[in-house]
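Quick one, tokens below:
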């Protein structure tokens, strides 16, 4: 087994746990020289310098911290002044993130499959479950959730899908960061894959690079030649992973644009662990495996919004959109607090001043129970107008409206005597849900691209046998399948379906056969993560009830046969009818199950499996 580097790309032999059968190694490509690529990367870095600085500024704005004591010592604040940062940017991002996280994690499966241009219905449940376990490997949230946060803060963020044989699906995700992915500034939205070059900036240690077999040792030493052994921060070096195309094939090389005199890792085709199996036409036996050199970048960008401006780099995030509001609200709140603080202070002046000289500031400490030899007047600063807080609320409410959030604390009447009515809250929540759904749909487009890249790796590993499959027929992998992020169905359809079922409930609740099906669907839509557990408990309760009913039927039948005189003749017909109805109830299969032979007299058919969660 080859050693896998920690910053992406693949091991020289594809990272296979066992050497592939007669595998053909990737050929080092012709193309750009080192000096050609170095010059191109330098130009990109220069174009991105202001963008990189902006990312640092965005983080400072979001986490704005003011040391009031230090500002007083530096003379920036007066002794009685205080500045209170109001974190509008962070508040908006935090509240928005919940919808994205629910989209990623809220569905039972990570993706759904269907055959392209086909009306045939196939059972993809086994494939969907296995792929979900590959997507939701332990710790995947540590790389996916930062993308949600980063694209909202900066307007753009990205994920690299790496080949990683230690993961269940042989792939993993890696968050890149806004300032660490450089591409030509003219790249347009929706045409990222057509970019002539991408550069990913990585911070790595010497130990990490030493574990990679085809790293140039001379260039490695050059990266760390001036490093102070006692300074742990200098154990890291900056490496650029450069992606570009030659004849449609993506190639990758490593360098440090400021230090390297040659490739740190020489150019080679991008290989994500996918193999083409060559089979003998007569015997059908596998004779070799050829590496599949990728024609697409294994990096996906996540834009925060879509506007008429097609330039991908111009996408704005909450830092740019909320900066002015945050500054205005922080300033106004601080001024109001300072004004209240000063209004609470007491000042005095002699009632009958005896001097006509300039006004002097006198020190007089008033003590309880002590008198004054001369009369004085007491006064204080005026309290700030309440309209100040009204303006603050107006700014916050407007900002929440822009971000499709509800400001529940707003005073929506002039006298603040009442809050939002229940109807107003309902309307606001409906609009909030619709706007958030729209944002998540935009996010889902990029997330679906990530899943598709992961699926290609996952599928190839099944085909070559490194992932064993027993939960579904492997022949369905040969079909032309369309993968869709499962969460998008919940976002766009769950709310509408749930509302329709809730409106239908008063009409059908008196019909047990129909109402049970509707109730199960409502539970699945409202609490998908707990639906299996709840439905299983409901089914077990129903089975217990049927068992009790079956026992009563048997007892009544035995009494009727052994003691026929106990039951009045005029009641025998009614009793027989009741027994028949009870047996029909007992024999009725659970929702989602097919009737099985032998399910008679309320007896449980052999091998019957719980139907909880079956749709």
């Amino acid at each position: 087994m080859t050693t896998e580097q920690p910053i992406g790309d693949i091991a020289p032999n594809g990272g296979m746990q066992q050497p592939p059968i007669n595998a053909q190694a990737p050929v080092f490509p012709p193309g750009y020289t080192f000096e050609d690529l170095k010059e191109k990367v330098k130009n990109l870095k220069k174009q991105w310098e202001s963008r990189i600085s902006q990312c640092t500024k965005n983080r400072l704005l979001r986490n704005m911290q003011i040391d009031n004591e230090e500002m007083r010592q530096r003379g920036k604040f007066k002794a009685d002044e205080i500045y209170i940062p109001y974190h509008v940017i962070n508040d908006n991002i935090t509240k928005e993130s919940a919808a994205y996280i629910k989209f990623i994690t809220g569905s039972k499966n990570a993706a759904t499959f269907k055959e392209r241009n086909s009306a045939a219905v196939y059972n993809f449940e086994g494939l969907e479950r296995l792929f979900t376990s590959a997507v939701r490997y332990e710790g995947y949230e540590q790389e996916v959730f930062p993308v949600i946060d980063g694209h909202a803060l900066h307007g753009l963020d990205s994920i690299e899908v790496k080949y990683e044989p230690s993961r269940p699906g042989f792939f993993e995700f890696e968050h890149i960061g806004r300032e660490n992915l450089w591409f030509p500034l003219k790249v347009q939205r929706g045409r990222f894959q057509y970019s002539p070059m991408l550069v990913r900036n990585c911070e790595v240690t010497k130990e990490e690079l030493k574990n990679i077999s085809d790293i140039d040792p001379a260039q490695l030493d050059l990266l760390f030649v001036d490093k102070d052994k006692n300074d742990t921060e200098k154990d890291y070096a900056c490496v650029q992973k450069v992606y570009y195309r030659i004849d449609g094939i993506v190639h990758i090389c490593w360098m440090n644009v400021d230090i390297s005199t040659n490739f740190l890792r020489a150019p080679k085709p991008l290989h994500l662990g996918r193999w083409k199996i060559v089979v003998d036409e007569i015997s059908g036996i596998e004779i070799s495996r050829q590496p599949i050199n990728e024609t697409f970048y294994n990096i996906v960008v996540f834009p925060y919004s879509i506007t008429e401006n097609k330039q991908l780099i111009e996408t704005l995030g909450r830092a740019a959109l909320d900066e002015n509001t945050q500054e205005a609200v922080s300033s106004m709140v601080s001024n109001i607090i300072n004004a209240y603080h000063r209004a609470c202070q007491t000042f005095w002046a002699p009632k009958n001043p005896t001097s006509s000289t300039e006004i002097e500031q006198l020190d007089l400490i008033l003590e309880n129970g002590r008198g004054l030899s001369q009369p004085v007047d007491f006064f204080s600063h005026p309290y700030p107008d309440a309209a100040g807080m009204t303006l603050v609320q107006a700014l916050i409410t407007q900002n929440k409206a822009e971000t499709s959030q509800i400001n529940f604390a707003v005073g929506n009447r002039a006298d603040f005597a009442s809050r939002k009515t229940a109807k107003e809250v309902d309307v606001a929540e409906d609009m909030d849900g619709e706007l958030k759904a729209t944002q998540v749909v935009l996010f889902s487009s990029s997330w679906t691209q990530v899943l598709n890249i992961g699926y290609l790796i996952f599928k190839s590993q099944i085909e070559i046998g490194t992932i064993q499959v027993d939960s579904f027929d492997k022949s369905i992998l040969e079909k032309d399948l369309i993968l869709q992020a499962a969460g998008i169905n919940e976002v766009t359809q769950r709310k509408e379906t749930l509302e329709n079922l809730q409106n239908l409930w008063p009409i059908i609740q008196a019909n047990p056969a129909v109402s049970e099906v509707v109730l199960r669907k409502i539970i699945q839509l409202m609490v998908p993560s707990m639906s299996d557990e709840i439905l299983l408990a409901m089914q077990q309760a129903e089975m217990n009830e049927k068992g009790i009913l079956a026992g009563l039927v048997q007892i009544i039948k035995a009494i009727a046969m052994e003691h026929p005189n106990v039951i009045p003749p005029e009641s025998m017909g009614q009793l027989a009818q009741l027994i028949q109805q009870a047996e029909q109830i007992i024999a009725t299969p659970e929702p989602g199950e097919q009737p099985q032979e032998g399910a008679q007299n309320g007896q449980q058919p052999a091998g019957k499996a719980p139907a909880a969660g079956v749709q």
